[in-house]
Target: DDB1- and CUL4-associated factor 4
Amino acid sequence: MRRNNSAGRAKHRWSNPRQSYHPHRYRRHDHKSYTERYDQEEPQSSPNAGTSQSTSSSISSSAFQNSPVPELPGFYYDLEKNRYFRLLPGHNNYNPLTKERIQHKEMECKRLKLLEEEEKQKKKTSRAGLNSSLVLRKRQLGLLSSTSYCRLVHELKVNCMQRMKVEITSPDSSVAETNNFKLIMADAAHERIFTVHDMEHGGCKYGIVNLNGLGKESLTVEMYDNLYFTNRKVNSVCWASLSHPDSHVLLCLMGIAETPGCASLLPTSLFSNSNPGDQPGMLCSFKISTAWSCAWCLNPQADNCFSTGLTRRVLVTNAMTGHQQTFGTNSDVLTQQFATQTPVLYNGCRSGEVFSIDIRQRSRKGHGWKAVRLFHDLAVTSIRLLQAERYLMAADMAGKIKLWDLRAVKCVKHYEGHHNEYATLPLHVNEEEGLLTAVGQDCYTRIWSLQDAHLLRTIASPHPSSKDSIPSVVFSSQLGGIRGVPGLLMAVKQDLYYFSYNSDDHIAPR
Model:
């Protein structure tokens, strides 16, 4: 009896795949049924997602989490060869395999596949039954308001955007083509973009690109470089309106060795011919400790003031008088934005807290001066106030993007699909077009509908994904000014790309 029981237990133990495994057993196993079941279950987890949303969710997830076969310690499963391979140290000295390399290879295959689909130039739609003829017909029958019509047309146009490379010219021959874009940031009128380049020998260089030449007949823009560069890391940048709108650029630089950090105001007149009407502007610098973020105030009650988010404090400085206010916090301030209707500053912290400060009150410690307090689970990397200043958009290092109602102090919408783990990545809100744009740490650019949080499109980077090649983007329906062209600008590596609206459609967004 004892022998039979032990044999039964052994048989049960080897029949349970959770208690034991054998690579050859799974090697012969047909994974087709797993794949079919996975494909059938995936749409149920996100009923409102379109084709682009399902693609983005699979891209942003780990290859091992989405694998249709069990993960075995010390092995990885190759879907193409339908077998397991060992990952033990010393097994393959000439081509060592790691989970990171395998995951990168799989993501690269998906990126190339998505680029291939986009090159076919097939018109896509993010919603079933939504097309230009239907939208136009509803508008003619009076079933759509002008606002809804504009929003739906932009959705259609966004899904038909086509990528084209922009040629960058410069009157200054010292601009090296090998310098990689670190970020691009458009001014309020979307006539110019400020650029930060990573230098080959270390440090950063700045420039301003004039977008007036961007159009259907010309894909050439002119970059105006300055004679200055810094060997310090640029942590944050924003446009500043000191003498006139967007007259300066505010830079927060990290300190190195014995050199302290600083916040510098650079007049755009430093950049040759950036605006021929500009007079030499004021160039000033304020010594500060390491600043993670900065923001410029446009409210007349705090004229010429800017804020810097530091380690466990917020520093508000008057650029003309040098007067400073300090507000102590419990965490590093990673992102900031001023309201325009009132002199209130919103801050997002490493702790996950979002709070506001009325800068008219005196500096003091504690929580008594925090007018609004919101909370995320992880560090908040970007915040954006909507125009009416009743809602605030916030993104964190868990990849969560939430829309908060500031009056009810609660989250009212979630925008799914964004990918972030530790990077400080910005959000781009275009309320007039009804769009939200964000670039993930996986180097995919995603565009959502502001109204219902529907993922409209996922755009793959033209370059292989890596930590130093995360694209920086600008979206506007008026690139180049009031009579500018609509579309998306993407800077990645040394290249600048323009995603233009498809001109084949016979409806206009305005």
In short: Residues 22-102 form one domain. Confidence is low (pLDDT under 50) at residues 1-67. The helical segments are 2-15, 23-27, 32-45, 51-60, 99-119, 132-140, 146-159.
